[in-house]
Amino acid sequence: MQLSVWTYEGPPHVGAMRVATAMRGVHYLLHAPQGDTYADLLFTMIERRDARPPVTYTTFQARDLGKDTADLFQRAARDAYSRFDPQVMLVGSSCTAELIQDDPAGIAEAMRLPCPVVPLELPSYSRKENWGAGETFYQIVRHLADRGVRPAPREARRPLVNILGPAALGFRHRDDVREVRGILDTLGIEVNCVAPLGASPADIARIGAADFNIVLYPEIGDSAARWLEREFKQPRTKNIPIGVGATREFIAEVAALAEVDPEPALEDGESRMPWWSRSVDSTYLTGKRVFVFGDATHAVAAARVAHEELGFEVVGLGCYNREFAREVRDAAKLYGVEPLITDDHLEVEDAIAAAAPELVLGTQMERHIAKRQGVPCAVISAPVHVQDFPARHSPQMGFEGANVLFDTWVHPLVMGLEEHLLTMFREDFEFSDDAGASHLHAHAPSQPIRHAELVSASSPQPDTPNQEEDWTPKQVRGDGENSIWTAEAEAELKKIPFFVRGKARRNTESFAAEQGRAAIDLETLYDAKAHYAR
Amino acid sequence: MKADAFSLPAESGCSAPSEREVLRAPVLRERGQREVFCGLTGIVWLHRKMQDAFFLVVGSRTCAHLLQSAAGVMIFAEPRFATAIIEERDLAGMADCHEELDRVVDRLLARRPEIKQLFLVGSCPSEVIKLDLGKAAERLGAKHAGQVRILNYSGSGIETTFTEGEDACLASLVPVMPASAPDAAPQLLLVGSLPDIVEDQFLRLFAQLGIENVGVLPARTADGLPAVGLNSRVLLAQPFLGETAQALEARGAQRIDAPFPFGAEGTTAWLKAAAQAFGIDEMHANSVIAPGRERAKRALEHHREKLAGKRISFLPDSQLEVPLARFFATELGMEPVEVGTPYLNRKLVARDLDQLPESTRISEGQDVDRQLDRVRADRPDLTVCGLGLANPLEAEGLSTKWAIELVFSPIHGFEQAGDLAELFARPLRRRDVLQV
């Protein structure tokens, strides 16, 4: 048993729902008790969908268990078919139904429903949401792709591609698809189908007509793309166009596969991010410490953008989906950090506290963690929140996506000139720490929320103080308990702006420990400052 | 433990069916797809109410995800609830479930020494694999005796619907309530979790009425658990507490029959029923009740214009549907078209049910697709429904009210009557205001 408070991913059947809901003409018959119907609200509330997800739940009850839950499943299948008239039916079990072993696949097959049926085996006790989405999409492609459909001869036609991976409840999938379509248009490449988002079973049947596949979200699209590569000899792309550099590499890769000239797409006049990043106002971004956590694809991409395109220092990198841990481990080597592969948010919270970053790029979970620690944060990945579905166009991919990244990651930070003013006038009552940064309003509490202290206080402390692990938020924030600081040095520390004070305290104390100094006085403070000067 | 929760009520337990009851069309009983939360959801408000209690769901990743999604926001780093997620090795018998559970509980209690009550909450998977949480609670309770009270109940969706989780939780507390002394003075037991502010209002009113000995279930802390016995009179604050009421009756308590305390009239009748049970002088009771009742009436006046004559349908959700429909019908002049409820406990809601118009269609259970067909045919001005259905209905041009707010916000009593009306008037007002 695993003790879990908040989870990054739902169960695998929620992943299947994300695929079914994204498509047209598909209905998902889920053998599940009534409580599982909560999943509908993810789509209707978080994503603001205007229709119920195409899912029928059998909602069996305790009184049905002794009798015939299989019969209940049959009845639900018949009713769902006649009411919704789907072109394809997905059938499967949620966690509870998996235990009663009714074999939805076998029952559905025996019923000979008048439409194709795709059985889903999603092991709820070992797998999670992203895997469920990837597996479901793969099964749909495997069952529906018409093996007779192959690309037409290349003469006298434009290159044709599939875009694989976008789904319901995806982080900015809607907007990314529009950006990528724009790039393809510029390159003179046509789209055969986008799937699962907006695809019909007929579109999936014709998936083999494309020359190659563009995989935007490997978590969802990779299994299907690899199968298509094997069975249909369709190459697949490997670059994820998040950030300017990655977008350029993506364009080059796509153009090479399509045998077209990449130049038209590379010269994008709307790409402002490089100049924004080079302009003098951005100098203050240099070396900002950033902690990155999310799904593997978004985390790896964000770390690269942070490092190469904004000049940040990556001080932490991790993901919650183990299936793609290798990519994160490889990337972590580039930045010389220990990869954090975990789905335990308390572990992530501790890691963030220990790294004392100036910016967190994470999921909604890290947004809460950062809020508690008083650190700015921008969201880069699912799990999603209603705010991750903005009304405006707000992609992560392509050149416009890079513009969006610049804005959303830089705006939570204290601006360049403001940073200087805070340093110069730190004793000024209006610039005092309690006022916080001018643009952050409620997002940067000057007093970190009490609960964060409880967390650190109740966390088991290692017996032997470990230089890296012993830094709880409490100490980083400088509450002064058990301090070896002299009163004078402590007062001086308080004059340092709050957003760098944690780092200054941490550095000074490490320095003092390294040098074997018993107390931290003004000398030590400024010696440490000189030592860590960058 | 609660296997019969879904069995249809054998016979109407209604003590004295009124004549209107006889005229009403029979209750429409539905047994198709339900679209309601399971009993685990109650943890979201129960853990706020019982401030030294921890709720440990023994279930699947789905249970954890449900709690997270129903709670909406994750404001607490370590809330006082969590899920012990059953994994493959537990099912394959590679790990002994009870040993695993002991390990999880020991770690949890070591980490959270402030916890005084621990509820082991059963889920669909734990029920299906027949994991005996009663036995586990007993074993762990003995181990942590004197420190933590360990109880168990089932919030599983195969046995409980939404608010029935609270019922099961409170019922699990009844056996550990101390027995009141044989000669103890009459005691009023206020049963059902209410927001503290509302509970305090009611406690002030009881004190003013002259009812001195008042116990509250659930108590805010473990040591506040009231006694129960032949001297106890139970006043339910929530209509979904059938099992709890029965358990209290089995320990000698008597239930006070009353409508539920919504609006000026509901609250008045509820308080008067209590006053009567305690032999309080009627004149005195009236004088205590009058100021609040007048304030409530004034507050409701603001919303009458918006709501009177409007047609309203309730989809089955919290079992609050019948009392709320009564409030909107008799106090604000709304017309309930269909009142759906997951389970109709005729005995407990008799006083509210009696007052519903004859034309109102009462439905019990659910077949969500057929129910939505009826909503589309009825086209009520306002549909009260769950979060999964609200936006789809709005997109079809039907105004909706999220039912979940009714269990998350203070709506009981005189001082909240206006707020309750406002919750329902707001969607209608918004619809009139918007020009996009």
What is the percent of helical residues of chain B?
Answer: 40-55%
**Which pair has the most extensive contact?**
A-B, 64 and 71 residues
Q: What is the overall number of helices of chain A?
A: 24
The global form of chain A is globular
What does the radius of gyration of chain B come to?
22 Å
Task: Describe this structure as you would to a colleague.
The complex is a heterodimer of chains A (534) and B (436). By secondary structure, chain A is of the alpha/beta class. Helices cover 47% and strands 11% of the residues of chain A. Chain A is built from 24 helices and 13 strands. Chain A has helices at residues 12-22, 39-46, 62-65, 69-84, 95-100, 104-111, 129-144, 173-187, 201-205, 218-232, 244-258, 263-266, 273-278, 296-309, 325-335, 345-355, 364-373, 398-410, 416-424, 450-458, 473-477, 487-495, 498-515, 522-532, and strands at 2-4, 26-31, 55-57, 88-93, 117-119, 160-164, 190-195, 212-215, 289-294, 313-319, 339-341, 359-362, 377-379. Chain A has a five-stranded parallel β-sheet, sandwiched between helices. Chain A has a four-stranded parallel β-sheet with strand order 3-2-4-5, with helices on both faces. Chain A has a three-stranded parallel β-sheet with strand order 7-6-8, sandwiched between helices. Chain A is globular. With 436 residues, chain B is of the alpha/beta class. Chain B has helices at residues 19-23, 43-49, 61-71, 88-91, 97-111, 124-128, 133-143, 164-173, 196-209, 242-250, 263-277, 282-307, 321-332, 346-353, 368-378, 387-395, 405-408, 417-433; strands at 28-31, 53-59, 81-85, 117-122, 149-154, 187-191, 214-217, 232-236, 254-255, 311-314, 335-341, 361-366, 382-385, 400-402. In chain B, the strands form three sheets. Chain B has a six-stranded parallel β-sheet with strand order 1-12-11-10-13-14, with helices on both faces. A four-stranded parallel β-sheet of chain B has the order 3-2-4-5, with helices on both faces. In chain B, helix 8 packs parallel to helix 10, helix 11 (263-277) runs antiparallel to helix 12 and helix 12 runs parallel beside helix 18. The radius of gyration of chain B is 22 Å and the shape is globular. Mean pLDDT of chain B is 92; it is low at 1-22.
